[in-house]
Specification:
A six-stranded antiparallel sheet has the order 1-2-3-4-6-5, covered by helices on one side. A two-stranded antiparallel ribbon has the order 7-10. The chain has a two-stranded antiparallel ribbon with strand order 8-9. It is built from eight helices and ten strands. The two termini are 30 Å apart. The protein folds into two domains: 83 residues, Phosphorylase Kinase, domain 1, CATH 3.30.200; 215 residues, Transferase(Phosphotransferase) domain 1 (Transferase(Phosphotransferase), domain 1, Orthogonal Bundle). By secondary structure, the protein is of the alpha+beta class.
Length: 331
């Protein structure tokens, strides 16, 4: 653990900002410029794990390619005293997990999701999947009276066309309550997996809970794979039923049933909130069923289906889930 006033990799440590299983983040001063940075260090305890070390080193390389106003920029990286580090912009504010749903206006929640969606779509166009979208990785900073949104922690991101398997052990690294069915079942991932996690995040910001909560991990996995998401309109007064249909589509068990992009999902959520009577979406009609079971008219939301979009809720992309799901999957 570094202490205030200590110098590491040329940066003067101010204080520790946070600590996790694989490392710590410190607030530090740049040695030559008048600014503070966030210094992320990989723990010495896991440095010998080649997989973890590669993942950490790749985070700096991946994010350095992603120059976007809603992505936390990386300034530098290196190894000092046999300890890898990444220097990033310091975001002076909370993360979205610290927001109380009861005190968060739905319009603001959707705006946070829309800003995050811009970051994700930008990364997706460059072949990068985040794979760990959740409120704790969405940072908020108020500048000149306006709230800015930053997506952080691409630590388990991977280029879509990279054949190198950084998770050959099969260990599941994304946060379980925000993981897509295809992550849990070891299926190939594409940008719609991040969209699913973003939809779980919006659900949490609107209601204060995740779509599939359970005491034990197997219950959470079962929910993601087998259950229709609860309707947010029944969990928080004032939310229109049109939002139920938007979230049900973004949380479809099959990626083919979701929106074409994170931005399309965010736009549909915003329209459903602001103009629920006229809410429309570019629908994949085979997946959008009205209560009577027939497909909804193109471009229109039907009532939130009990089985999402006419898809068997017990099926997941590419396979039927086994009776007992394993806790590990190819990430």
């Amino acid at each position: 653990m570094l202490r205030a006033g200590e110098v590491f990799a040329g940066y003067e440590i101010e204080r520790e900002l946070g600590r996790g299983g694989m490392g710590s983040v410190y607030l530090a001063r740049h040695p030559r410029l008048p600014r503070l940075i966030a210094l992320k260090l990989l723990s010495r305890d896991v440095f010998g794990d080649i997989e973890i070390r590669r993942r950490f080193e790749r985070e700096g390389d991946l994010v350095a390619r992603l120059d976007h106003p809603n992505i936390v920029p990386v300034y530098d990286r290196g190894i000092d005293d046999a300890q890898p580090w990444i220097a990033m912009r310091y975001i002076d504010g909370p993360d979205a997990s610290q927001l109380e749903a009861a005190n968060l206006p739905p319009r603001q929640a959707i705006r946070i999701i829309a800003e995050t969606a811009r970051a994700l779509d930008f990364a997706h166009r460059r072949g990068v999947l985040h794979r760990d979208v959740k409120p704790a990785n969405i940072l908020l900073e108020r500048l000149d009276g306006e709230e800015r949104v930053f997506l952080a922690d691409f630590g388990i991101a991977r280029l879509r066309d990279d054949a190198t398997k950084l998770t050959q052990t099969g260990s599941f690294t994304a946060t379980l309550t925000y993981a897509s069915p295809e992550q849990l079942s070891g299926q190939p991932l594409d940008p719609r997996s991040d969209q699913y996690s973003l939809a779980c995040t919006l659900f949490r910001l609107l209601t204060g809970d995740v779509p599939f909560a359970a005491e034990h991990p197997v219950g959470i996995i079962h929910g993601h794979l087998n259950q229709a998401p609860p309707q947010v309109s029944t969990l928080r007064a004032g939310l229109p039923q049109a939002l139920d249909a938007v979230l049900a589509r973004a949380l479809a068990k099959h990626p083919e049933g979701r929106f074409d992009s994170c931005g399309e999902f965010a736009a549909a959520a915003q329209q459903a909130l602001e103009n629920p009577a006229g809410a429309t979406v570019v629908a994949h009609s085979p997946f959008v069923a009205q209560s009577g079971g027939s497909p909804a008219a193109p471009g229109q939301f039907g009532p939130a289906p009990t089985t999402p979009y006419g898809v068997d809720p017990n099926s997941v992309p590419g396979q039927q889930p086994p009776a007992t799901m394993r806790y590990t999957a190819q990430a």
